[in-house]
Each structure stands twice: as C-alpha cells, then as structure tokens.
Write a structure and sequence with these properties.
This protein is α/β, with parallel strands linked by helices and 266 residues long. It is built from ten helices and nine strands. It has two domains: 4-182, Vaccinia Virus protein VP39 (Rossmann fold, 3-Layer(aba) Sandwich), CATH 3.40.50.150; 193-259, rRNA adenine dimethylase, C-terminal domain (Helicase, Ruva Protein, domain 3).
Length: 266
C-alpha cells in the first residue's frame, strides 16, 4: 500500500518500465543508482542491463520486501535510507535512474549535479510540468532557473509522456521521462560559475520585470553592463540564452575583480 506522506506512486506496467530502462542507455560496464526502487520491478530490469545496481529505498517495509524479491540478482546492492544523504562522491562514474516523489525532484537533481564530475547521466520520471521546465528553450513561460541550471550541466531530452493512469495510486497530473546526458565540459565557459548562477537567479526573481530593473542589485551600472554584453536592457529574463547570461556574468566578474569585492547579494 502506498504511503501518502512519502509521495509514493508506483509504476507496474512492464512496457513502460522497459522504456524507462531503454531511455537510460545502459551498458554492462555501467554502475547505476536507482532512487526509490519501490517494489523492485524496474530494479530487476536494470540489473539485466547494467553491471552494478545500487538501489536506495527510504521506506523500511519496501526495503525488506526487496531483499527477498531481488535475492537472485548478484549485482544489486540494496540500501535503506535517504537518497539526499547518500555519499555519491564515493562512487566512480555512475548513472542514475529514478521514479521519485514529485516533491523531491529538484532537491535530488541538484544534489546529483553536485557530483557532475562522476555523474554520467540522469533518467527521471517526473511531473510533466517539471519535465517541460527542464527542457524549455528561451522565450516561453516554462523557461527559467531550472532550465538554465540543468542545461549548463547537461543536455536534457523529454523521452516520452507517462499518463497518470499508469500509476497506483493515480496522481492528479501526468508524468514524463527525461534523460539528461551530463557534459564533460559545460557548453559555455565562464570565469566564475557562482556569479553566473547568481545572475540567473536574480534575473528570474522578478521575471516580469525588464533586466535593467531585475538585475539592479548586482550593479549600479547594470544598463551599461547589459549593453556591453550585447543585451537590450529592456528585455525580460526568459528571452536570454545561456550564452547571453554567461557573457553578462563575465562582465560582472571583471567588475567584481577590479573593485576587490561584490555587492552582498552575490
């Protein structure tokens, strides 16, 4: 029985589970971390495709059931605990496959990206709306901080939609499977990643405002900096590409370096 406080919605359809495993693009040399194995149906499929599977389940009762169900697979390591606290830095190269509760999608994603040097790919079943935000391009209402932060680290693709009726219990929204191939090198080069991320977050903190207004906390001369980066100060943040944010961040980094400090907001 699903536990509401853990946000549990289980997928049982073997054809959908098979498609998720296929989207993960696994090989026998891969180490895969599965977050939230649930009843273990997909875990067994992963074990048939990958060399090693580390399955992390928060629910103690489910974990106990998995021990018996998956006992015939010698390449599965079952762990009971919180995936947000797992020491991913102790692994070599690894991939992640997960059907996780919607409410921890963003925390899990950013926790994994902290280990981008080791992380090779992430295949997630998420709320459709979140999938659309992650894969969004400039110009739409879905495009924002999440889009840019993920796309700086990897190339996301929306693989397919999973209708809500495929889950038990049935959630209120549809889901989607996304695959993020992590870059060995980011698609843009910046002098300071933290300044890039702060510029992005500051811009979208008031996304309905023009950049000249939303980015005022970063510089008293933000209009001049925007123009120097080839960006019209009258534009809104959702129209800027990652490359444009990177150009602006580098100009602000130069200002920061010369001044020997930076506004406290950074």
């Amino acid at each position: 029985m699903a536990k509401k406080h853990l946000g549990q919605n289980f997928l049982f359809d073997p054809s959908i589970l098979k498609r998720i495993v296929g989207a993960a693009r696994l090989s026998p040399e891969d180490t895969v971390v599965e977050i939230g194995p649930g009843h273990g149906r997909m875990t067994a499929m992963l074990a048939d495709s990958a060399g090693r599977v580390i399955a992390i389940e928060l629910d103690k009762e489910l974990h106990e059931g998995l021990i018996e169900m998956l006992s015939g697979h010698g390449n599965i390591e079952l762990l009971q605990g919180d995936a947000l606290k797992y020491p991913y830095g102790d692994l070599d190269k690894f991939k992640v496959v997960a059907n996780i509760p919607y409410y921890i999608t963003t925390p899990i994603l950013f926790r994994l990206l902290e280990h981008k040097e080791r992380l090779r790919s992430v295949t997630l079943t998420v709320q459709k709306e979140i999938a659309e935000r992650i894969t969004a391009k400039p110009g739409g209402k879905e495009y924002g901080v999440l889009s840019l932060m993920v796309q700086y680290h990897g190339k996301p693709t929306l693989e397919f939609i999973v209708p809500r009726g495929a889950f038990r219990p049935v959630p209120k929204v549809d889901s989607a499977v996304i695959h993020i191939e992590i870059y060995e090198e980011p698609p843009v080069k910046v002098k300071n990643e933290q300044i890039l991320f702060r510029v992005i977050k500051t811009a979208f903190s008031q996304r309905r405002k023009m950049l000249a207004n939303s980015l005022k906390p970063l510089s008293d001369e933000i209009k001049e900096k925007l123009l120097a980066a080839g960006i019209d100060p009258m534009r809104r943040p959702e129209t800027l590409s990652l490359e444009e944010f990177a150009r602006l961040a580098d100009l602000l980094e130069d200002c920061h370096t010369r001044a020997g400090g930076y506004p406290e907001v950074l």
